[in-house]
Amino acid sequence: MKLDSLIDQLAGDLAPVRPRRFWVDASIMALVAVIELALLFAVGFAHLDMHRMMTQPTMGWRIVSLGVISLVSGFLAVRSFDPAYSTRGALRWLALIIAICLASGIVMAGLPTGAASLMQRLDWRSGVQCASKIVLLSIPPLLALAVLGRRGAPTDMRRTPLLIGLAAAAWGAFVFIFACPFNDPLYIVVWYGVGCGIVTLACRFLLPRFARW
Amino acid sequence: MADDHWRALMMAAQTGDAAAYRRLLVEVGSWLQSYYSRRLPPSMVEDASQEVLLSLHAKRHTYDPAKPFGPWLAAIARYKWIDRLRAMKDSATEELPEEIPVRDPGEALHSARSLEALLERIKPAQANAIRLVKLEGLSIKEAAERLDQTIALVKVNIHRGLRQLSELAQEESHEA
Question: What does the pLDDT look like over B50-59, one tens digit per residue?
């Protein structure tokens, strides 16, 4: 087909559109996240001993760390659906935030005294369960971000899927905080890290196959 | 790029003004042909321009009228250019036809210069394999004989070289 006839066809097919607004997409995302959290509380997902859990020092660290990471990465993911927006500089800041959160967790955890202590603290059977629950809880925000991404026009097929994965994983982990009975920062850094890492890497490598436009 | 003029046309197009939209597409089409003639072999310019017009049509709601039109269009054009480079990588083992239609030697020269600048940034073995097979149209076997390499190595060099080119193009596009 020649360029002229394509232009004729496209002009003939024209219908009015409402320009995409960042804040509308961001609000949809926030709504999905809040609904997920509210539904899980409604079905009794939260830890029974929540009042005591909230007094633990690691609880504040978890809430602040995962809340900030999911908020910042979600914000950047939605911004990156604009074709002209580059996330390169902002990603460095996000990496710094993640490093600070992990480092503070490791400092709080203290070093294990030996291999036996390490194995006991990591409790890999529970850890695998925690990581898999985080993966499951990441699915609703992940789907919402993927749908919004399809409606948008992301042009960076490396960073946008990474941000989508990170935002969804951090939110999944944030929601899981309220059901997780473990308080050891070492356990949290390792197993929450595994759960979030699986989601983020899966998105980074699988999403570009479906997100191209 | 007449940004304010195109922005006004695009805003009108978003409200359903077909005449403004047609004018915008004609002007953008001409800009795209010039853009791709500096970045792609002449045989690909028309297809790449058409693909961007189709994308512009499908994604016209993603243009925010509060922002300039030029960077939005340029980002889509770059994205589609990188896709073309990636597609070249995926068809790295296909032989090109002996007769490659060349419409305008000036365009070909621009395109060759732009590609040459990118090729100079990758490994010489990869660049030479791409030059012979993708640009000069030699078969893999002929290129292997010319470069004194095995056929498998030429294929690997083309594949890796095109992947590198696509990454370099992507990096440049996000630095711009």
Answer: 999 999 999 9
Tell me how far apart the alpha carbons of residues A14 and B58 are, in angstroms, rounded to a whole number: 10
Query: How many Å apart are CA B125 and CA B156, to the nearest integer?
Result: 10
Q: Which residues of A touch B170 (CB under 8 A)?
A: 156, 158
Nearest Cβ partner for B63 among A10, A11, A19 = A19
Give the C-alpha separation, B145 to B99, whole Å: 21
User: In terms of DSSP H, where are the helices of chain A?
Assistant: 3-12, 22-42, 50-54, 57-79, 88-109, 115-122, 124-151, 159-177, 185-187, 193-211
Q: The whole model's pTM is what?
A: 0.77
Distance CA A3, CA B29 (A): 8
Residue in B with minimal Cα distance to A149: B62
Both tokens of A75, joined, read 């914000």
Select from B50, B73, B78 the residue whose CB has the most chain A CBs within 10 Å, as the one to mutate to test that interface.
B50
Model pLDDT for residues A13-30, shown as the tens digit of each residue: 999 999 999 999 999 999
Question: Do residue B62 and residue A11 have CB atoms under 8 angstroms apart?
Answer: no
Confidence at B134, pLDDT banded by 50, 70, 90? confident
- Residue A186: phi and psi, rounded to 5, are -65, -45
- Best of B3, B7, B25 to substitute, by most chain A Cβ atoms within 10 angstroms, is B25
Cβ distance B54 to A10 less than 8 Å, yes or no, reads yes
